[in-house]
Design brief:
Blueprint lengths: L2 H18 L4 H11 L4 H22 L1 H9 L21 H11 L9 E6 L7 E6 H16 L9 E5 L10 H10 L1 E5 L8 H11 L3 E5 H13 L8 E5 L5 H11 L2 E2 L2 E4 L3 E6 L8 E3 L4 E6 L5 E2 L2 E9 L10 E10 L11 E6 L6 E2 L5 E2 L3 H6 L5 E8 L4 E8 L5 H16 L4 E5 L15 E3 H5 L12
Parallel strand pairs: 3-4, 3-5, 5-6, 6-7, 18-21, 19-20
Antiparallel strand pairs: 1-2, 8-9, 9-10, 10-15, 11-12, 11-13, 13-14, 14-15, 16-17, 18-19
The structure holds zinc ion (ZN).
Zinc ion binds next to loops.
Length: about 475
């Protein structure tokens, strides 16, 4: 089937789905395209109304949220809008984990919600429930953000994310869905020196003009292109999930001749920030129609501008309150004020989510995001960290909780790391009592002491083209 026909069919399928729903994805996307430039007061009014209705709804329908509000001595009538959000209780991961069934709102049967499991690094993962309007809005924000880099629904695009780590096979249904939506997928963690060429040729052959994936994976491709004196012209690259050193930006821009537009989301609230395509300095625009970000400053005060640990509010999910939820990320936020004319707020800086790259025994780079991915498969872990001291080495540091099965889990971890770092890789496993955290309470997941020692952590050897 020619790509243009597939793309037209895919868009038509969304038209039908949106027509069938009372308020569908295409309507939400069209509205989000408009509302990014609404006068700020109009946007604020929308946010105020959503928060007001949501709090009243959860007070009436979420048994545990009602208890929390009563404990906090706050009633729904006191929440008139975002300005009053500080009166509401803060939700922690522990609270969600322990009280998920009582947090879930009445009137949302399983058939009408989606489930997301996050926090897989703990023995007791967090189960988040999301209703369909919540999903529609987050998806609309996602596609609006990609649209800023020229990627439209139905276009051919390329995605480099986790993959199966060789432990399970991908389902045919997913492959069919990917093809229909124009999405081409390759597993990020299989990307290594010996197959980098194949990845590059697969992207070239797909005709994709847009690449979405782990920052480290996009960077590894870019660096390989540069070191062989070539380019792979794209329109935009959307790296995510990790902080990006300045030198990586430059390498990606040169190798792909593309805009580099990182985006930020989390498993619980999803769409949170997309890079402004028009700003001189890198800045994320927040999805103000969908989510509120507050920061907790050092003295415990919270604010809609400033820096500190993030508190996230999902304004659309009526199935489970994610209101003032401390997700473990941190950064600096500000209100609107971008020269591009969009009236959305801004994330000026993101902290946390630090992943270095790892080097295989042959000295090839692989994405450090493999650490988080591997630990999704290990139960009863409170914290973990990967430290690399030389190529082909990994020291895996684990803080466990009761129930941890050392022989079985160690065997699994060794297999995963050896299959990616090389059969002769040296994999050590340590059990420290704790792992030092960053300001946001999130440990640095991957530390490459070898590269840091060589003074190259943020500037791995790569010849400018
Ligand atoms: Zn802007």
């Amino acid at each position: 089937m020619p790509p243009s026909l597939r793309s037209a069919l895919y868009r038509f399928h969304w038209t039908l789905r949106s027509r069938a729903a009372r308020f569908g994805f295409l309507q939400a996307l069209a509205l989000a395209e408009e509302s990014q430039r609404w006068p700020r007061e109009r946007l604020e009014a929308l946010r105020d109304r959503k928060l007001r209705e949501l709090v009243a709804h959860f007070h009436a329908n979420s048994p545990y949220y009602r208890v929390l509000m009563e404990r906090h001595r706050v009633t729904p009538s006191e929440i008139r809008g975002i300005a009053d959000i500080g009166k509401l209780p803060i939700l922690t991961k522990a609270m969600i984990r322990e009280h998920a069934p009582a947090l879930r709102a009445r009137g949302f049967p399983d058939s009408q919600v989606e489930f997301g499991i996050t926090g897989g690094t703990t023995g007791n993962p967090m189960r988040v429930t999301r209703d369909l309007p919540g999903t529609v809005w987050q998806r609309a924000c996602y596609w609006r953000g990609f649209g800023w880099g020229g990627l439209r629904l139905g276009d051919t695009w390329f995605q480099l994310f986790g993959g199966a780590l060789g432990l399970s096979s991908r389902r045919t249904k997913d492959r069919l869905k990917n093809w229909f939506s124009g999405k081409h997928f390759l597993p990020a963690f299989e990307l290594q020196g010996h197959n980098t060429e194949q990845y590059i040729e697969a992207i070239r052959a797909s005709g994709a003009r847009h690449l979405v994936g782990y920052a480290s994976s996009c960077f590894i491709l870019a660096r390989h292109l540069e070191s062989t004196g070539r380019t792979l012209p794209l329109e935009a690259v959307f790296p995510t999930a990790e902080l990006i050193p300045d030198s990586w930006f430059d390498t990606m821009r040169r190798a792909f001749g593309a805009k580099v537009l990182p985006y930020y989301g989390c498993g619980e609230v999803q769409s949170l920030g997309y890079t402004c395509p028009d700003s001189e300095t890198p800045v994320y625009h927040t999805c103000d129609e969908h989510a509120v970000i507050e920061v907790e400053e050092g003295d415990g005060r919270t604010s809609l501008e400033g820096e500190g640990a993030f508190l996230l509010t999902d304004l659309d999910n009526a199935a489970m309150p994610l209101i003032r939820y401390r997700n473990g990320d941190a950064g600096a936020i500000a209100g609107p004020g971008c020269a591009c004319g969009r009236t959305l707020g801004r994330i000026l800086r993101l902290d946390g989510r630090v992943n270095d790259v790892l080097l295989t025994a042959d000295g090839e780079m692989i994405s450090g995001a493999i650490g988080a991915h591997a630990f999704k498969m290990v139960a009863h872990v409170h914290q973990f960290q990967i430290v690399q001291r030389e190529p082909g080495h990994a020291c895996i540091r684990i803080v466990t909780v009761p129930g941890y099965d050392a022989p079985a889990e160690e065997d699994k971890l060794r297999r995963i790391f050896k299959s990616h770092l090389g059969e002769n890789a040296r994999v050590e496993i340590e059990y420290p009592p704790e792992i030092a955290a960053t300001v946001a309470g999130k440990a640095r997941l991957v530390i490459n002491e070898y590269l840091e020692g060589a003074g190259a952590a943020s500037a791995p050897a790569g010849k400018p083209g």
